[in-house]
# Entry
Amino acid sequence: MNAVAANITSPYQRILDGLNSAVLLFSADLSLRYINPAGEMLFEVSARHLLGQSYEQLFSKTSISADDLKQVLTTVHPVTQHEVSVSLLNAKKITLNMSISPLLDSKDNTEILLECHQVDHLIRITRDEKRAEDQQATQEILRGLAHEVKNPLGGLRGSAQLLQRQLDNDNLKEYTRVIIDEADRLSLLVDRMIGPAKKPKISDVNVHEILEHVRQLVLADSTHKINIVRDYDPSIPDLKTDPGQLIQSILNITRNAVQALTSRSEEQPGHIIYRTRILRNFTIGNCRHRLALLLEIEDNGPGIPDNLQKKIFFPMVTGRAEGTGLGLSIAQSIIQQHHGLLECDSKPGKTVFTINLPITT
# Structure
């Protein structure tokens, strides 16, 4: 327990520490006495650097002033305001729902409890849940479609094989071979559409070894000059994941980036950045994780067209005439099987695919 927050007893502090919302306790002179881990995540600064600072130092350029907090102490009535735009210590601008409550004890000591819910954070969680639901619904449709397609394909292939055995003319056998080959191709395409069928084989994996492996594969395979920049956080612990599936997911995203870069007309060589960081108390879907991996794959290509950005993770959606539209869909399925999150943000000159995976230690 923080010595500064001496009036918060241990059981209550454990409750506050476990909340997803940021909780800050200010003294009557509006200096910070306590902040929970979610608050540290909000400010991206540890509690020991925040304690003792004033409300105006922590929250600048906001519609809720220090006088408003003092008014709450005077009236002894809690106040809630929605979608408050604030600037934090690091000049980061965010939108918060803020609840201000006065606290009085038997010794007439007055304090203010401030609870903050990040609105864009809530929007992201809702968006992630909807995306997961859409992906699951799509997979169910594809599985049903795969069943309906593969059954007649199997009969078609089997009939072609039987017919081939009855034919003596090699020219006629060539037609049956075409039927068999095309049936196999369609069956493989259907299998790729529904994503990996096998459950992940989990083991302890160093994410940077995975990235280096993919990097070597891509550089060896590429016929164009592409620079892959590494921006790694060496403190990231091992992940519990299926290395083969994680390689496949990262490889699919990287190959998409390479294809985007090779389509550029500029003389300046394209680059891809592999960036890794640790996130603390990060929420994926509706589950909060003490530690999570942030893996970004960034390229300086032309960007993804606006009409495709919301659909790029669905099967058969592609911006290239020669593309199958399956690579990102498979990558999404793999990351979701690992209880992670795959997102994309794109504009001309900068496309970033972000993978978040829970880290269990």
